[in-house]
Amino acid sequence: MAAHELLRAAYKLFNARDLDSVLRLMHADVDWPNGMEGGRVHGHAGVRDYWTRQWAMMDPHVEPVGFATNEAGDTVVSVHQVVRDLDGKVLIDQMVTHVYHMEDGLIRRMEIRGLEIRDAEEE
Question: For the whole model, what pTM was predicted?
Fold first, then answer.
């Protein structure tokens, strides 16, 4: 599966909260950013624990809108991110950049870059 196809599937599975299926698209030693609390989490157990905590507190939705490859060969994804509280109120509506390093056809590392915050109440 090409990187773009795998990542599109990963975003779809994340939005559907299909944790087991999205973890199958990640390397066993995946290195993942903890965008909620800071730092990084490692491995399937670390990502599972992080997302389980995150989803208990908020409802994030991420939609890829563009793909590119950087000079290092990593996949760069422009992402529209909307985060709602558990009652459905929009807390964050922004464009972010996710950079993925793939290894053995799986997601090995992800980084979050460049936040462009749009105030949800202005729209």
Answer: 0.90
Q: What is the mean pLDDT of residues 76-93?
A: 97
Is the alpha carbon torsion for 83, 84, 85, 89 positive or negative?
positive
CA-to-CA distance for 55 and 123, rounded, in angstroms? 25
In order of start, what are the domains of the chain with their CATH numbers? 3-122 (3.10.450.50)
What digits encode the pLDDT tens for the residues 39-76?
Answer: 999 999 999 999 999 999 999 999 999 999 999 999 99
> Which residue matches tokens 């915050």?
117
Q: How confident is the model at residue 117 (pLDDT cuts 50, 70, 90)?
A: very low
Residue type, 13: L
Q: What are the angstrom distances between the C-alpha of 112 and each of 42, 64, 77, 121, 122?
A: 15, 13, 10, 24, 25
CA-nearest of 32, 33, 59 to 43 is: 32
Tokens of 90: 């929009």
CA 89 remoteness from chain centre: 20
